[in-house]
């Protein structure tokens, strides 16, 4: 019988191995980047981020708004395709006072 702590440790170990297995398919791409970005559910997972740092020797960045709502994908799209950024949809008063 596994206690609550043992179950959590087993789940954590599985999660780190699962992510490492997925990333193994992209090993060539990882060599080309300056760092890694972890978002979504794994963003605040210290053990995962530490394992990725030790495995790949790259800094691991966690965006301030981690979540499962595709913000990281949007950040990447904005960075890679600046010509396709949508216009700001602000319809209220000016954000900056006009002279």
TrEMBL record:
Superkingdom, taxonomy of origin: Eukaryota
Q: What is this protein called?
A: Uncharacterized protein
């Amino acid at each position: 019988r596994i206690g609550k702590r043992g179950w959590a440790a087993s789940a954590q170990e599985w999660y780190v191995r699962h992510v490492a297995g997925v990333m193994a398919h992209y090993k060539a791409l990882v060599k080309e980047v300056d760092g890694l970005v972890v978002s979504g559910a794994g963003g605040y997972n210290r053990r995962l981020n530490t394992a990725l740092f030790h495995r790949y020797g790259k800094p691991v960045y966690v965006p301030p708004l981690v979540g499962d709502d595709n913000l990281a994908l949007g950040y990447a799209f904005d960075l890679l395709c600046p010509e396709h950024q949508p216009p700001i949809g602000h319809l209220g008063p000016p954000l900056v006072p006009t002279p």
